[in-house]
Write a structure and sequence with these properties.
By secondary structure, the chain is an alpha/beta fold. It has helices at about 20-25, 35-45, 55-65, 75-85, 85-90, 110-115, 130-145, 185-200, 215-220, 230-245, 305-310, and strands spanning about 100, 120-125, 150, 150-155, 170-175, 205-210, 255-260, 265-270, 275-280, 285, 290-300, 315-320, 330-335. The chain folds into two domains: about 20-65 and about 215-300, no CATH class; about 75-210 and about 300-335, Rossmann fold (3-Layer(aba) Sandwich). The strands form three sheets. Strands 1, 2, 3, 4, 5, 6, 12 and 13 form an eight-stranded mixed β-sheet that branches. The protein has a three-stranded antiparallel β-sheet with strand order 7-8-11. Helix 7 (about 130-145) links the parallel strand 2 (about 120-125) and strand 3 (about 150). Helix 1 (about 20-25) crosses helix 2 and helix 3 (about 55-65) packs antiparallel against helix 10. The chain binds S-adenosylmethionine (SAM).
Length: about 325
């Protein structure tokens, strides 16, 4: 195995069989989705990694730390909406609802929402981060003992069913944290249509969206001075090393946040600081100095552009709640 010259990092143990990875990229048998995405993403002309792989246990912990950084106004703004507008939001949601949360993470905002709703019956958190999902479910079940809690570990972009049991009425989707902004328009449409199916005929949804604003404020939110977002981004390389036996040298990559004016998105990149070769399982990936891996886009919306997106997935905007500074929007959606 080739190591990046000058890197002192030991090469990790090798938990994945090469045959499995080959099958995965042939598309025959998907044995290891992470390996498949890494091989595809790093083989592309413009290197990318899907952002959902940022969220292993360490990544989820780092994301929670990001939400406490001064520059990261998003969580403060969204939480203030949930506090200030709790009566309006509760009026929008039917009494006795089952709350279905997409990308639940630590579920901190969920507790606020559940506390303000009238007699919620159930809570279904969906996430790919299994440890956080289990912990969030335990904490919410113990805080709301009468609630039926059923965690679902799944990629919310894949087609899947939720084992609701009982009647199909009275379900509310919750998708906070501006996670919608991480999805391109086709992924967002797929998820919105999946939500329609999960939430049933009179389902409603509440979606937290970061609003378009001046670019300096946006870029600072994704490149905090304490370096927490940088650590969050670099953790994806650490994850490849640990889970796929890669030999990335983290010191040879730098976190960069860039504004993409066409996409109206802040992009996170990992930029190679030198010419280097990275390997795992006989695959080699060459990086030129300044070449980057695009790891996440965070799209920013106006009320109009989000309304268009919602309609593409079969929803219309019934309510828009905003914080006092107009930084963030929570959209209340009903079916078209
Ligand atoms: C930006 S964080 C938001 C967390 C929390 N909802 C909040 O508002 O603070 C995104 C969350 O979505 C999860 N996630 C990202 N992509 C996902 C996917 N494709 N399927 C399921 N969960 C996903 C991550 O694991 C993470 O917990």
């Amino acid at each position: 195995m080739i190591s990046a010259a000058g890197c002192s990092r030991p090469v990790s143990a090798v938990p994945l069989k090469a045959e499995n990875m080959l099958h995965a990229i042939d598309g025959d048998v998907v044995e290891n989705a992470f390996a498949r995405d890494v091989v595809r993403g790093l083989s592309a002309a413009v290197k990318t990694l899907p952002s959902r792989w940022l969220y292993n246990e360490r990544g989820s912990e780092l994301f929670e730390e990001i939400t406490r950084q001064d520059e990261y106004y998003l969580t403060r703004a969204e939480t203030s909406i949930l506090r200030e507008r709790q009566r309006d939001i509760a009026d929008f949601v039917e009494s006795g609802t089952i709350l279905v949360e997409y990308g639940a993470g630590a579920g901190v905002k969920t507790e606020l929402l559940l506390a303000s709703l009238r007699a919620p019956r159930g809570y279904v958190p969906i996430d790919v981060a299994d440890t956080f999902l289990a912990e969030t479910s335990r904490r919410i079940a113990s805080r709301f003992p009468s609630l039926w809690v059923r965690p679902v570990e799944h990629n919310f972009l894949d087609l899947f069913e939720i084992p609701f049991g009982g009647s199909g009425d009275g379900r509310t989707g919750f998708f906070p944290g501006s996670t919608m902004g991480n999805l391109n328009s086709s992924e967002a449409k797929t998820l919105l249509m999946q939500m329609r199916r999960h939430l049933g005929g009179n389902g409603r949804a509440i979606i937290g969206v970061d609003l378009l604003k001046n670019v300096d404020t946006l870029l600072r939110a994704y490149d905090d001075s304490a370096g927490v977002t940088a650590a969050f981004n670099l953790n994806i390389l650490e994850r490849i090393n640990a889970e796929l036996g890669g030999d990335f040298c983290l010191e040879k990559f730098k976190h960069v946040a860039r504004w993409n004016e066409i996409e109206k998105a802040v992009e996170m990149h990992l930029v190679s600081l030198c010419d280097q070769r990275v390997t795992f399982y006989g695959w080699t990936f060459d990086f030129r100095t300044s070449e980057s891996i695009h790891t996440e886009s965070s799209r920013k919306y106006t009320a109009e552009s989000f309304e268009r997106l919602a309609r593409s997935g079969g929803w219309k905007v019934a309510e828009l709640w905003q914080d006092a500074d107009g930084l963030f929007g929570m959209f209340g959606l009903i079916r078209c």
